[in-house]
Amino acid sequence: MSEIASNSLSLDFSVIRDLRKQSGLTLQQVSDHSGLSVASLSKLERNQNLVELETLHRLARVFGLSASDLLSLAENPTAHRKKATHYRSGPFDFEKISFQGVEVFHATAAAGDSLSHPEAHGDEYEICWVRKGRVHIAFTHEQHTLKAGEALKFDAVLPHTYQILTDAELTIVHLTKTHRF
């Protein structure tokens, strides 16, 4: 198997064609913005050419992406399916789905329940969306009471407590912070 054929099995740069069309750009326009030839771009879109890091960087900038984001799209051009895990944390029942950079929780809790030390957080943001019921979220220097249909986004590293005021159903999202320079 040739090196190009082997590369096309693990990296699919046809995603560049998809990005180009989604952006309403022609091959010539991408060529003008990236400094790459139309012929090279065409071959790359058909997985008939290997890509160098500088090329990856130039193309990513055309689409407002980082080189690592573009490479990730080429590595994973299809959807990823996962099964939820179920667990209990304090008085809360959780279902959790995790993908790179995001964790999504469906939580249920009864009136009077409280979770004072939510699971350890890394450097991430948390979004709490109250689907049913009422929830009070307390921080060291502020407090919020949310009802169904309301959400709160905050830095998850801040100490916080969930107090369930009425039987509640929540969607909680943890988003990994990206540090790009």
SSE blueprint:
Blueprint: H1 3-10, H2 15-22, H3 27-34, H4 38-45, H5 53-62, H6 67-75, E1 85-89, E2 92-99, E3 102-109, E4 114-115, E5 124-139, E6 143-147, E7 151-155, E8 160-176
Antiparallel strand pairs: 1-2, 2-3, 3-8, 4-8, 5-6, 5-7, 5-8
Helix pairs in contact: 5-6
What do these coordinates show?
- There is one protein chain.
- A hairpin with a 2-residue loop joins strand 2 (92-99) and strand 3.
- Residues 1-9 have low confidence and may be disordered.
- It is elongated and about 65 Å long.
- The two termini are 39 Å apart.
- Strands 1, 2, 3, 4, 5, 6, 7 and 8 form an eight-stranded antiparallel sheet that branches.
- It is built from six helices and eight strands.
- It has helices at residues 3-10, 15-22, 27-34, 38-45, 53-62, 67-75, and strands at residues 85-89, 92-99, 102-109, 114-115, 124-139, 143-147, 151-155, 160-176.
- By secondary structure, it is of the alpha+beta class.
- It folds into two domains: 3-75, Orthogonal Bundle (434 Repressor (Amino-terminal Domain)), CATH 1.10.260; 85-176, Jelly Rolls.
